Amino acid sequence: MAGGKETPRQKLIGMMYLVLTALLALNVSSTIIEKFIFLDESLVRANNETAERNVKLVEGIRAKVAELGDRPEEVKIVDAAKAIREETANYVKELTDLKVDIIKEAQGYVDGKEPDYRGDAKHLVGQNDYSTVGHYMMPEEEGGGGHGAELKEKLNDFPDFIKSKLKELGVEDEELNSYHKIALDADEDPVYKEDPNQKGKSWSALAFNDSPTPAGIATISELQSRILGYETRALDVLQKKVGASDIQFDRVVPMVKPESKYVAAGTKYSAQMFIAASSSGIVPEMAYNGNTIPVDEASGQGLVEFTANASEAEFDENGLARKTYEAAITVKDTTYTETMEYFVVKPTIQIQSTSVQALYYRCGNNLDVQVPQLGVAYNPSFSATNGNSYQGAAKGQVTIVPTSTKPVVLSVSSSGNLIGTREFAVRGIPAPVVTAYTDKGEVDMKSGISAKTPRLYLRAIPDESFQQFLPDDAKFRVAEAQITLVSGGIGRRTITVGETANLSAITSQARKGDQLSIEIIKVQRQNFRKEVEDFKNYNRFINISLN
């Protein structure tokens, strides 16, 4: 493949060359030889087109330099372009001469079939000759003509010549390193060095050994294509350097710089309007405070973006902290700087409660935390000391679960940057009141219940205010209680129950004037995560008269 910029046609021909070479290695039929003849014709046409384009490139460089006044530094570019074109033409001619020599070695052309151009691969007497090309190119010590080694050395000199011309004009190493050697032995070539069948082979053996004459001719045409490709790339580089020291403004856009995008009703909107111009041929370097920023090549604009911060001491009585940064734009070794002023607004954390007015211990306290100054840039995250925080689905919503009776400190951040903290006191959960019920409703403790009452229900009623604020945390139940029938001051029988008590076992012995003494053993609470825990704070004894 050519090392420079190739047309689609050249790329296709190069791919065909690789495929045909592979097929040839498999000793495929003579039809492949005809394909090599066709391939050589295509390569010759493509090479001629490339050479014509490169001639026009040199002429264009010379004309542009003349238009700019033949400045000495740019005249050197013209001289380099001419030298590269001349050297390339010499290489192409020498390779064509090599084709002619090989054809002569292979007994020339069939009588009466004159070639269309020097080195034409059609109508060869030695069309099916598989030995002449290889013998002509093989090393002398192997009994060959030794021309392959000479050709390899010369081909590998060409990239060095190109690099030397470009380096004189200050072309960067990244570009220079793209001009690789053209002729590589198997041990150097990444395609073949891991192939045990090719190990130790010389470049001339890889390229020409056991090749029929048309394949050898096509191979040389492909080498010409590489030479021309390197020339094309080099000339393109030189073309871009012409006038590169000039700034030609071809992108002009109107710019409006408002004092603020936010204007209160009844106040004036104020903005500066001006023209901004840039060059599409130059990508400037941009930085702020020495930090390089990316530049969009299409628009020539860079984006200054950083997180604004200020210490508490820097804010004035209006909550503003004045800051500056240095903007720098470098174009053609000239740097333009300006000090830019901006103000950091002290953020105000606004907390609204969606469920509670205080934080309850071991409960899910829902808060809505907003920082109006950040607007749409607000991207909150939360952490808490003496408690756990759980971020809600909506922006700013957070659930705080105090894990200690010590004050909880909530830290509010946005996009990883701390905005501020808020401290909350922690209060205990109000005790529920364990109340007895019958099928008729709540037991009237003054009048008692009938001695024949079949069932009794024990319910732990939460504090009304607590239930209103945190309904998901105000779910209590009596898990265990003991009911004793007391007659004449003596306990007659005791049963253990839960929320529902079947009294039939003791009411059969009950008489009017007896009492039911109820001791609450265990009360449990289900929290907002549906986790159940034992709750210690409740009324432990209830006495009900029987009538």
Overview of the structural elements:
- With 547 residues, the protein is α+β, with helices and mostly antiparallel strands.
- The protein folds into 5 domains: 234 residues, no CATH class; 36 residues, no CATH class; 56 residues, no CATH class; 78 residues, Cadherins (Immunoglobulin-like); 113 residues, no CATH class.
- It is 30% helix and 29% strand.
- The strands form 8 sheets. Strands 21, 22, 24, 25 and 26 form a 5-stranded antiparallel β-sheet that branches. Strands 4-3-7-8 form a 4-stranded antiparallel β-sheet, with no helix packed on it. A 4-stranded antiparallel β-sheet has the order 9-11-14-13, with no helix packed on it.
- Helix 5 runs parallel beside helix 8.
- The radius of gyration is 46 Å and the shape is elongated.
Highlighted features:
single chain, 547 residues, alpha+beta, 5 domains, 5-stranded antiparallel beta sheet, 4-stranded antiparallel beta sheet, 10 helices
How much helicity do the residues have?
A: 25-40%
Number of strands: 26
> Into how many domains do the coordinates divide?
5
Distance between the termini: 111 Å
Instruction: Tell me, briefly, the overall form.
Output: elongated
Largest β-sheet summary: 5 strands, antiparallel
Report the sheet-strand fraction: 25-35%
**Over all CA atoms, what is the radius of gyration?**
46 Å
**Total helical elements:** 10
- Mean of the pLDDT scores? 87
Name the poorly predicted regions. none
* Secondary structure category: alpha+beta
